[in-house]
Amino acid sequence: MSNSGQNTRTGQGKLLEAQAEDANKKTPDQSLFSYKGVLYPCSVTSKETLQALQLLEAREDDLLIVTYPKSGTNWVCQVLHEVVHLTHQREPLVDALILEFGKPEKVEHLKEKPSPRILSTHLNYDNMPRSFFEKKSKILLILRNPKDTAVSFYHFYNNNPVLPTYSSWDLFFKDYISGNVCYGSYFEYLLGWNKKLDELNIMTVTFEEMKEDFAVQLEKICEFTGLPLTKEQIKLVEKKTTFKSMKEKATETNSKLAKAMFRKGEIGDWKSNFTEEQSQEVDSKFEASLAGTTLGEKLNYNKYCKF
Ligand code: PPS
Questions:
Q1: N or C: which end of the chain has fewer CB within 10 A?
Q2: Number of domains into which the chain is organized
Q3: What is the model's pLDDT at position 256?
Q4: Residue at 164 is within a domain
């Protein structure tokens, strides 16, 4: 989840690093808890925080990044911080505000943050603070194909001390496909958001689109967020947020999680992990759930998920 090296300059980032260091590898039962049928990591959040979030007062000008884990949260978060840096002369990544991470008091602390607040979350639609919907806050939903997401998640589980370790990819895959991982099933997650797309002030962009056509996607993001940049500024943001520059920066700040967070940043890495059978299992799951839906179409499944 979004505890990147980029964030370690911040109070919340330091907290996450400390928790990661303190956490000895635990069994899934010790390190995860279930809330409303979804698993969460104990070291970074709690039932109390998830409950307190329902009292959070959203703002119309909040910029909320919504992602299933490992879909590009930190990347888009950094991009938005760079954009706000240019449009509001504000320091980039002053704070990495991950909604569900921290203590319940965070709801109060969030009130002090200047607008526009850049927030991120992996919460599913049902567990989201309702205020974001009432205020029609701007939501950026970032998607990544389910196979690369799975591989990225597997490595993150094994390299992040706050999460349990899997002794093999095959064991992780079984849990991933059945939704027995942090934040639940990839497919249920997308379906939950898909049902409400028409009611929300939402823009959807994929990891793959950003990799292949960054400038065009950033221009669309700028239009949606009402934060216009010049062509030169778009180029500058692109340069500052490449995988290489984000990884280097995270490594410079000595983030213990830099390696886990900025692993490969590629499209198609799944092909070196998946067996033919596993690939077909995801295909069947996709067909039975997301195929034909707006978000399913957005994934461009046949282009990115076939051997
Ligand atoms: S988390 O923990 O859920 O918040 O992780 P998240 O940030 O959503 O996703 C991590 C993956 O995004 C890749 N990444 C990038 N790719 C391309 N460009 C940039 N700038 C970038 N920054 C992060 C990161 O490497 C993870 O993917 P994998 O496949 O594991 O490399």
A1: C
A2: 1
A3: 75
A4: yes
